[in-house]
Known about the structure:
The chain is of the alpha+beta class. The chain folds into three domains: 75 residues, Arc Repressor Mutant, subunit A (Orthogonal Bundle), CATH 1.10.10; 99 residues, Phosphorylase Kinase, domain 1, CATH 3.30.200.20; 99 residues, Orthogonal Bundle (Transferase(Phosphotransferase), domain 1). It is 45% helix and 19% strand. The chain has a five-stranded antiparallel sheet, sandwiched between helices. Helix 2 crosses helix 3. The site of magnesium ion (MG) has 3 residues, from loops.
Amino acid sequence: MEVAKIIKSMEKEDFRVLRAIERGMRRAATVKMSNICFFSKLKMEEVLFRLNKIHKNNLIIRDSTGETSYKLNSIGYDMLAFHILVGQGIISQLGVEIGKGKEADVYKCINDDNEEMTMKIFRIGRTSFRKVKQLRIFVGERRHFSWLYINRLAAMREYEALSKIAPLGLNIPKPIGINRHIIIMEFIEGTELNNLIEIEDPVFIFEDIINQISLIYKNVGIIHGDLGEFNVLINSVGDILIIDWPQWIPKNHPNGLSILKRDIENICLFFKKRFKVESNTEEILKSIIS
Ligand SMILES: Nc1ncnc2c1ncn2[C@@H]1O[C@H](COP(=O)(O)OP(=O)(O)OP(=O)(O)O)[C@@H](O)[C@H]1O
Ligand SMILES: [Mg+2]
């Protein structure tokens, strides 16, 4: 990760300028010098010096068409979040990458006690717009919304789901920390269901998944909304872990029933195709909502 290399050279004024640009991006795609000065409360010369430095370090993008203005790039945004998470003592070091996808980068990380955790950095809109669509309904009536906002929203929503689900004592990762578009959660060993050609007791695994969906629905009123063989992990002893929750919806949502049905259908269909497990979506749906 780029941020880890640069973070040591960052000074507090650099962060002030980065935060000023972030602030300005709430209203506009790029931020003018005058606004950066205003938001950072730094003098023009200081701002110029800092802008040059963080631009060289590849944390911001300069737009020179017309009046020069700036915007954060993903490394700049990572830097802001990373700095806070380190400052709060939640993480101290980044580890290996464990999942790089279209919509998130996932890393191992550790804290000062060498405890392993998972860091999920949202990258919605980078190459795929699927989650932008899924999350669009939560954006509301905003004129301008940037990728900063949609990724922060995704992190917030996933964190909220994990927090609500945690007391149920399932194997779903416990939330540990959040800042901006990054969440820190428990590290969980497991492989995506989709990677398995064979499993020992597919009916048991299938029922376990349905049972967890049902427990979550009944006890905390949450519907996953993007369930399938890619978002269910299974560990070496056959525990099921449902991940990837940013698009969850509450059960009283107007489309709740049809989205719950689609989630169940995805699981039923996958188990039928891959492991020849027969099931009845309608019956399962009925038993969950009853
Ligand atoms: N808490 C965790 N512990 C261990 N591994 C995890 C954890 N969360 C995610 N992963 C790994 O990272 C991968 C991607 O995570 P997730 O499904 O949450 O992201 P995504 O938004 O779907 O992004 P992608 O586009 O990469 O699929 C998972 O398939 C899994 O292998
Ligand atoms: Mg996923």
